[in-house]
Amino acid sequence: xxxxxxxxxxxxxxxxxxxxxxxxxxxxxxxxxxxxxxxxxxxxxxxxxxxxxxxxxxxxxxxxxxxxxxxxxxxxxxxxxxxxxxxxxxxxxxxxxxxxxxxxxxxxxxxxxxxxxxxxxxxxxxxxxxxxxxxxxxxxxxxxxxxxxxxxxxxxxxxxxxxxxxxxxxxxxxxxxxxxxxxxxxxxxxxxxxxxxxxxxxxxxxxxxxxxxxxxxxxxxxxxxxxxxxxxxxxxxxxxxxxxxxxxxxxxxxxxxxxxxxxxxxxxxxxxxxxxxxxxxxxxxxxxxxxxxxxxxxxxxxxxxxxxxxxxxxxxxxxxxxxxxxxxxxxxxxxxxxxxxxxxxxxxxxxxxxxxxxxxxxxxxxxxxxxxxxxxxxxxxxxxxxxxxxxxxxxxxxxxxxxxxxxxxxxxxxxxxxxxxxxxxxxxxxxxxxxxxxx
Length: 439
Ligand code: GLC
Ligand code: MN
Known about the structure:
Blueprint: E1 32-33, E2 36-37, H1 38-42, E3 44-47, H2 48-53, H3 77-95, E4 99-103, H4 104-107, H5 114-135, E5 138-143, H6 162-181, E6 186-189, E7 195-196, H7 204-225, E8 230-233, E9 243-244, H8 249-258, E10 265-270, H9 271-276, H10 281-291, E11 294-298, H11 317-329, E12 338-340, H12 351-378, H13 380-389, H14 395-401, H15 407-416, H16 428-436
Parallel strand pairs: 3-4, 3-12, 4-5, 5-6, 6-8, 8-10, 10-11, 11-12
Antiparallel strand pairs: 1-2, 7-9
Helix pairs in contact: 3-5, 5-6, 6-7, 10-11, 11-12
The protein binds alpha-D-glucopyranose (GLC) and manganese (II) ion.
C-alpha cells in the first residue's frame, strides 16, 4: 500500500508538447538511440541522502523540510528508517529509475557502538532486498559515510588516530558486504575529510601512506568476497576540508599509480566537483577516459556564482550533451550510471518537488544524450580530430613517438630536411558552431 507521500505513483512519458509538470517530455526509456534503449544508455540512479535524509539546512539555518520520518515527527528510529525506505522506493518506482545509491548513514539510525550500527544496517539491508525484488530497482553503488560523525572530523583513513583508521576500515567492510549482498554494481569512496584544514598539524607523507593502504585493503577485500563491481573514487578538491587529497581526476590517477591501483580503481566524476576544482565537467570526463579510469557520473551541477557545492539537478542541455559525448566515445556507461547526487533548494518544501527535480534532470540528460548520439553518428567532431592529428600517422612521425629517433637524431633531421613548420587553423569557431547544430 502506498504511503500517499507523493501525489502520483507513476510518471509517464508524454512527449515534447506536454504541459504536465509531472511528466517526461524527452525521456522515453524505450526510445532506441544508437541501437540501445535510453534507459540502458543513461542508467539513472537516485541518491538516498539528499532526497530522504537531508533536512534542508545550510550554513546559516537548519531544517526546512517537514518529513514524517524525521526525528521531530517520529521518535522510533527504526520505524522512521522503514517509512523513509517505503517513500524512497515509491519515488524510485514513480520515476522509473533503474538504480539507487546510499551511504550506511542515510538508511539506518546511528547506534551507540560499531556493532549496533552494523545490526541496524543489516535490518535495513534485509528490507531493501525485499523492496528491490518487488520493484525491480537495483543498486548502482553503496558507500560508507565516513565524514558526518565527529569521530571522523580529522579524516577517516587519514586520521592521525589509528583507532579511527580501524573504525573506518571496519565500516567500509560492512558497507562493502551490504553492497555485495544487494548486487551493487559499484562501490564508491569519497574522501570528504581525507585532506587537511592546516598544514601546521598535517604530515602529508604519513597520510598518503594511510590512504594508499586503505584503498589497497578495499581492493583486496573486493577480490576476497568475489565482488564483481567496480571500485570508484570520487574526486573533489575541497569542502568540507580546505584541501582534499582526491582533488581531481588527474590527482587521483597519480595516487592510484603511486599505490599500484590504476588497473583496479576508476573514478566517479561529479559535475559540481569538477567546477570546484576549476575545471569543466567535460575536462574531467575527457581526462578520465584518456587515462582509462572513467567509471561513473554524479550528474549534479553547481551554481557558477556561489563557489560552493550546491548539488543542483542538472538543467543545462549543451553541457550535458558534451558530457555524454565523451562518455559515448569511451564506450558508454558500463558498470557506471548517471546518479543524481542532487538536492532540492531548501525552499522547495512540497513532496512533489522531489519528483519535479528528478523529472527535469532526467529530461535534460535524455536530450543531452540524444544530441551526443547525433554528433557521434554524424562523426564531425571525430573527423576534425582525425584531420588535425593525421600527420602523426606518417612513419617518420611515428618514429619520433615510439623511440626510434632520439633528441639528437631529430635535430639532425630538422637540419637535413630544413623543417620549418607552417601553422594551420585550430578551427574552434567552426567546431563550436558545429556543436550548436545538435544541442
Ligand atoms: C557525499 C558527497 C557526494 C558523494 C557521496 C558518496 O554525500 O557529498 O558527492 O557522491 O558522499 O560517497
Ligand atoms: Mn557525489
